[in-house]
Amino acid sequence: MVVTRITAANENLTAGRTREQAQHYWAETHGKLVANSQAIRRYHHYFSLPEAYENEPKPTFIGISKFWRDDPYAFGQVAPDGQPVEPFMRFYRNPPAGNDDAQLFDRSRRWPRDDQHADILGEEHVIVDGPTRPGMVNAIFMVCRKPGLDHRDFFEHWLQVHGALAAKLPGLRRYVQYHGVLDAFHRGRGGQTHDGWSELWFDDYAAFQGAYRSPEWQALEADGKTLFHPRQGIVIGREYVQKDENWKPRDYGALSMTEDEVRAKLLAQGYHSLACDPQVPARIKAAAEKGQIAVWTDEHIVVYGDYVIDSRPQRLP
Q: Domains along the chain?
């Protein structure tokens, strides 16, 4: 069984980034860091569109990361020393990547008290099996069942009744439900935040808004009131592919640079202490040869393996 995981979050407001800056950092720096995990087969993002905040339904999260993996317990496997088995996850659970997560996201609160965080493992159920293409809009709704409904009845109604209503939405190109894999989540991570999520794909945001204002959506919403907790997690965005089946570690140009060029790039990006260490350029090039540069942008450089670097630029006044 291929299990899909999503995590949704909002920005850490103490970091001083705007929503757009946080989304950019998530895509271009943090996401590239996480992509190094061998446990992740595919890795996509969906970032809430600016225009979605001006209309209903408004996003509750700035974005979602979506992971595919073959083993639902892969992230939970630990060695005798209590650390993860998979090499990059061992690295990720320690300060370099863990600190990056903490400075980017608001992890302080949990569902259902507010909408700051979502973490779900789900099994895919395709209802409208249409193709997707770059630029399409994906409306993602993370849901909890109403109190009193057991999971079996909830999943059956969601799939058979609610799913049939959603399939009638005008302009809908693809529709998938992901039902929470409760056993996997309890064993691997200790409990998930929602019972599942749905993805509704449209050609563009205008097409989604047309569906949202339609009589078919009203019928869908009426049925949803019998099924879902009224507070839902929402992201309405476009797909950003971080990692696919053909992904390979990046060298960020280091293999083709001389040591002097590596040093010059570090200086230009503000990594002054690294640039002043005479051993660092050679170590970066050696790491590039082994595929051990996890990320190198003008906001964060991380090298793991034989020699660990975890550095951010020193912004000059």
A: 3-243 (3.30.70.100), 254-311 (no CATH)
